[in-house]
Design goal:
Blueprint: E1 13-19, E2 24-25, E3 34-39, E4 45-49, E5 52-56, E6 64-65, E7 76-82, E8 85-90, E9 93-98, E10 101-105, E11 113-114, E12 121-122, E13 129-135, E14 138-143, E15 147-151, E16 156-160, E17 162-169, E18 172-179, E19 185-188, E20 194-198, E21 201-205, E22 210-213, E23 219-223, E24 229-233, E25 248-249, E26 252-253, E27 261-263, E28 267-269, E29 290-293, E30 296-301, E31 304-317, E32 320-326, E33 332-337, E34 343-348, E35 356-361, E36 366-371, E37 374-379
Parallel strand pairs: 1-34, 17-22
Antiparallel strand pairs: 2-37, 3-4, 4-5, 5-6, 7-8, 8-9, 9-10, 11-12, 13-14, 14-15, 15-16, 17-18, 19-20, 20-21, 21-22, 23-24, 24-28, 25-26, 27-28, 29-30, 30-31, 31-32, 32-33, 33-34, 35-36, 36-37
């Protein structure tokens, strides 16, 4: 492995899989699909459901499902606290919750002709909002057909759809126009740059529009307060991030500032303004080493490779980085890493099959896990083997 690849692969050793200490399921939402979690400044935890909204107040032991008629039959995909209000991204558009009431935010001015199999359609207020982010005083939304920015001060909308995909070739970069679709995640890094995960790859906001790049990304999630760092999982990246990028790293283009800590060969904690452009590589070493490819965490054993979990979401915890995953049997599992990402342990949440949709480390230290079977809550498990 040469210095040009910037491969910082470190062996990651895990204790035997064990059960979490006293995991509890919220009985009031037992069997309810919970899509997303968010905690506001007061400590209240908000839950986006398949139909409606619920809240877990500070000191309460059970979430309270809210009777909000506009959301009664609407799935909530994203919740973003903003002062005294909540922005809600739903299956039927954008809503604002404040003072116990919900109001729809009409996407006036955001309409545009978008290509599809039928030729064109109109972007309407009924388009599903998949993710939300605050950036430069505006609310940013990811939808199936575009990225949009909403200015609450004047009610104006801006639509971002066209982008340029830069592919790395021998001797430089080759760009081609493309269109954004399937935006699923948004975040702002420590350099105050906006990133969006879309169906065409990872996209970053530039001037005057978006610059897209790469193949599929396996996903990323803001950690900490969302401004200091990112946790990024890549499957394979084959393009540059910006027309100004000229650094060549191994066989891939990458930003000069994107030097971070490598974990699992393809999961990397960013230390700079950008994403790491390195495909996963299994670390060398004896049995017990853990590596990740395409969201799967595997253990190297004498008989070969054993898949331990399939990572879905990530979050910071006092004990380190908590990684929520699923075992091959679909058993919800937490992988808790030490701060240096070199040691950790798996903890089984429940023996029954469940799909993990979101993860939150609350300010009271508890880990909350949103699943298709309800909400699980537990003390933060240890990363000590």
């Amino acid at each position: 492995m040469t210095a040009r690849t910037l491969a910082l692969s470190a062996a990651f050793f895990l204790a035997a899989v064990g059960a979490c200490d006293a995991p509890e399921i919220a009985r009031s939402l037992d069997g309810v699909t919970i899509r997303c979690l968010a905690q506001d400044a007061s400590g209240a935890v908000w839950l986006g459901l398949d139909a409606g909204l619920a809240v877990l107040r500070p000191g309460a032991t059970e979430p309270n499902r809210l009777d909000l008629q506009p959301l009664a039959a609407t799935g909530v995909n994203a919740i973003l606290p903003d002062g005294a209000c909540l922005w809600l991204g739903t299956d039927t558009g954008l809503f604002r919750y404040a003072d116990g009431a919900v109001a729809r935010i009409e996407m006036v001015g955001a309409e545009a002709a978008l290509p599809d199999t039928d030729g064109s359609r109109r972007l309407t207020a009924n388009d599903a909002v998949r993710c939300l982010c605050l950036h430069q005083g505006k609310l940013w939304l990811g939808t199936d057909g575009a990225i949009m920015a909403y200015d609450p001060a004047d009610g104006q909308w801006t639509l971002f759809r066209d982008c340029f995909v830069w592919m790395g070739v021998v001797g430089g970069l080759v760009g081609s126009p493309s269109q954004i679709s399937g935006c699923r995640q948004l975040l702002v890094d420590r350099g105050r740059r906006l990133w969006a995960l879309t169906a065409i790859g990872l996209v970053t906001l530039s001037t005057p529009g978006n610059v897209g790049f790469s193949h599929w990304q396996t996903g990323y999630r803001s950690v900490g307060d969302g401004d200091d760092s990112m946790l990024v999982g890549f499957w394979e990246v084959t393009a540059g991030m910006d027309p100004a990028i000229r650094d060549w790293i191994g066989e891939y283009y990458g930003p000069p500032a994107a030097i971070g800590l490598d974990a699992f060969g393809g999961l990397r904690l960013l230390a700079g303004d950008g994403a790491i452009l390195e495909p996963p590589r299994a670390p060398s070493g004896a049995g017990g080493a853990i590596y990740g490819t395409y969201r799967r965490f595997s253990r190297i054993v004498p008989q070969g490779t054993e898949v331990l979990a399939q990572a879905r979401v990530f979050a910071w915890a006092p004990e380190g980085v908590v990684i929520a995953g699923e075992s091959p049997e679909n058993t919800p599992t937490l992988c808790v890493c030490s701060p240096d990402l070199r040691t950790g342990a798996f903890h089984v949440i429940a023996r029954e099959p469940a799909t993990i949709n979101d993860l939150l480390v609350a300010t009271d230290g508890r880990v909350l896990v949103a699943t298709n079977r309800g909400l699980f809550a537990m003390p933060c498990p240890s990363a000590t083997p």
